[in-house]
């Protein structure tokens, strides 16, 4: 990827897009669009060379947003119990953004592996059936993200805008993620929900691999939109990574076995490997580094 590209990152105040924006800002002109209700997050991004523009994407507020981006990396997402609001943010606003940025070289839309229909311990490919995966935890999430994918597929054709839809599976790293939440639950002695159809396996992707591959996936954009599972190649269970985290901090995790939590979501990354290569960060080293950087005083092993 040549230096000096003009890149828009939405959702840059979030766990995944934040490291993407700050890392790319070292070599590119990076803009971040968000509401920036927390001024500290704006200041932190600005300090890393990111140009921050206050914009309410859900309201179609693009007045201060240029149209001449080389790449648009769309990570903004709403998660609530309000179907109307989440469809407006996740689907409608995404279409409006693609219309505004239709002159871009590529548009990358971050979807989720939570769009797949639960199917025990099946390994999901990009062609696997879609369904209401997250209903027990986030009732609007899977459906609004499926709706967003449909809008993105239409807009890619309508605006002849090369597009990649990445279905992200369990991101984690120094900026947080699901394993980090589990780490804090273990420290507090809180029971961690795991599905009764054990083990609860997912396909982790460290933020270093996200940053390393994101522009390559954007460059791979096509019309019609290309769909890619964005994940590592190590399928790891919650039980396994919590046991490892517990060993690092000297506390045995407690599990709550239940049907009222997510089932396994393992994804195949062969298509990703063909485009940008495999994930490089081993899950154990990635989790250890997460603890070292977030809570070094907790480490005993």
General description of the model:
By secondary structure, this protein is of the alpha/beta class. Helices cover 36% and strands 21% of the residues. The strands form 5 sheets. Strands 3-2-1-4-5-7-13 form a 7-stranded parallel sheet, with helices on both faces. It has a 3-stranded mixed sheet with strand order 9-8-12. The longest helix has 18 residues, at 83-100. The protein is globular, with a radius of gyration of 19 Å.
TL;DR?
The protein is an alpha/beta fold and 301 residues long.
Number of strands: 16
Examine the secondary-structure arrangement and name the CATH architecture of the largest domain.
Answer: 3-Layer(aba) Sandwich
Overall pLDDT metric:
96
Radius of gyration: 19 Å
Biggest sheet, in brief? 7 strands, parallel
User: End-to-end distance, in Å?
Assistant: 40 Å
The total number of structural domains is: 2
Structural class: alpha/beta
CATH fold-level topology of the largest domain: Rossmann fold
Going across the major beta sheet, what is the strand order?
3-2-1-4-5-7-13
Oligomer: single chain
- Could you say which overall geometry the principal axes of the C-alpha atoms support? globular
